[in-house]
Amino acid sequence: MNLGSLFEFPNSFQKRRENQKKIKEKREFSCKTSFRPNRFFYMVVIQKLITTTEIFDFFLVSIKKFWMTKNT
User: Fold this and answer.
1) Membrane-spanning regions, if any (predicted)?
2) Which of 5, 52, 62, 64 is 20 to 30 A removed from 34 (C-alpha atoms)?
3) HEC states along the chain?
């Protein structure tokens, strides 16, 4: 029986626990961050909608001005 392998056996469990702890810390950090991918996506979509409505409103106003000046 090799005694060296017996002494290395508990260390593998200890390394596994350390890896699990690191993974858990990474998960906790990612849960706390404010810019999750889906939130960022929704933020971009909402900004695009706002910009589109502003452009559309500007277009409508410019058309009204055009017709008002043409009719007078």
Assistant:
1) 40-61
2) 52
3) CCHHHHHHHHHHHHHHHHHHHHHHHHHHHHHHCCCCHHHHHHHHHHHHHHHHHHHHHHHHHHHHHHHHHHHC
